[in-house]
Amino acid sequence: MTSHHPDLSVRPLAAEEWDGWFRVLELAFGGSEEEPQQRELWRELTEVDRALVVCDGDRPVGGCSAYSFRMAVPGGAVLPVAGVTMVGVLPTHRRRGALTALMRRQLDDVRGRGEALAVLTASEPPIYGRFGYGHATSRLGFTLPRGRVAVHQPAGPEVRLRLADPREALPACEELYAGLVPLRPGMLERRPGWEALAVLDAPGGRGGHSPQMCVLAEDPAGGRLLGYARYAIRPDSDDAGPAGVVRVDDVEATHPAVYARLWAYLLDLDLTSTVTVRTRPVDDPLVHLVSDPRRIVPKQRDGLFVRLVEVAAALEQRGYATPLDVVLEVTDGFCPWNAGRWRLSSAGPGAGASCVWTDSAADLRLDVRELGAAYLGGSTLAALARAGLVEEVREGALAEASRAFASDVAPWLPHGF
Ligand SMILES: CC(=O)SCCNC(=O)CCNC(=O)[C@H](O)C(C)(C)COP(=O)(O)OP(=O)(O)OC[C@H]1O[C@@H](n2cnc3c(N)ncnc32)[C@H](O)[C@@H]1OP(=O)(O)O
């Protein structure tokens, strides 16, 4: 592990330093400036008391920060987590241990705040494994041709579709979204201010698309919101005629029939030929609703990386799908307080869990990174064992733990941060 260069030091950011600090981060990410609207939102959302700066002498050369999020985990609990963000080091100061020094200070701070988990999305996945982050969720993007697939319409409530201004509709959409958060591991409860991100739609970032639109699916009798989709259209044409592209930003619904109705709408907009969506869960119902699944051109990418900052607290705070009683021998090169043997037991769904130090013999051996990868139920421990990353010491322990850690609902993070 790199130890940092003696001229480098890490300290908290002062609020009045935000502009200079943010510019250092922009330079670290390649120099492009954020759209003014986007920049102002990041300023408002920065939790300055969680921001760190790394200096060469007294000159800032990098930084990082964290958001105080709450994240759904298997079993339906919504837990405090540190959402690690804005990590960057100037190109003149790389590979001298600046990031390592930032991560050291940040993980110690997260522990001090009593958050058992840290999570992040990575600019490049190879960066964070050394700090104990495991690849915990994936996202599915896809492209669909209009007119080549029908969307099965399951039985369910009738809805009336209505176009609305995305900002005016936001409070109702957010209320619906809040109800969905505990149902899918990896989803984040919205903190005040974060709702603006979904409808920010900075004109400079539209890339030829229309302003964002919002279609509401409402109960025809009472007008109650049952689902919504936000999308934009980029007009285009080819020799055969109009060939616009629909960019789907969000689709959420409280009932499968409403979800199907919204997709049927998105897949049948006049003057368009293609529908794209950047991120959906890997178990998205649409895959089962379309008449021709081969027409879905998928693109799967890494999503959230998870780090157990306090192994025992993190494992006690999530639910387990089946009973388990296993001794985990955990290695942790960056947070040594986690290393050792932990006895994890639970009577299964709804029963709570206990995780305590033990002298008993190990049943499974694994690194904290693999616990992070399996934590939300996205990767199974059995799959990680087949990759040689989890070692089964007691026969049967792997199947027992793998079943208990699994989630029926694929974990997913709908948006970056
Ligand atoms: C959550 C987020 O915000 S993700 C955004 C991350 N930021 C970026 O991608 C912006 C562009 N990149 C950067 O600013 C920097 O290169 C950083 C932050 C990724 C790395 O900063 P550095 O100060 O150079 O890292 P540091 O010197 O501490 O390196 C620690 C180790 O990680 C390795 N490492 C660092 N960056 C990378 C990378 N991009 N890919 C693979 N390995 C890396 C180093 O080689 C080093 O390995 P070693 O311990 O075996 O010697």
From TrEMBL:
InterPro entries: Acetyltransf_17 (IPR041380), Acetyltransferase_Eis (IPR051554), Acyl_CoA_acyltransferase (IPR016181), Eis_dom (IPR025559), GNAT_dom (IPR000182), NAcTrfase_Eis (IPR022902), SCP2_sterol-bd_dom_sf (IPR036527). The active site is at Y128, F417. SUPFAM superfamilies: Acyl-CoA N-acyltransferases (Nat) (SSF55729), SCP-like (SSF55718). Residues 8-166 form the N-acetyltransferase domain. Acetyl-CoA binds at V87, G88, V89, R95, R96, G97, A98, L99, T100, S123, E124. Keywords: Acyltransferase, Transferase. Pfam families: Acetyltransf_17, Acetyltransf_9, SCP2_2. PROSITE patterns: GNAT (PS51186). The keyword Cytoplasm does not apply. Belongs to the acetyltransferase Eis family. Homohexamer; trimer of dimers. This is GNAT family N-acetyltransferase. It comes from Kitasatospora terrestris. The lineage of its organism: Bacteria, Bacillati, Actinomycetota, Actinomycetes, Kitasatosporales.
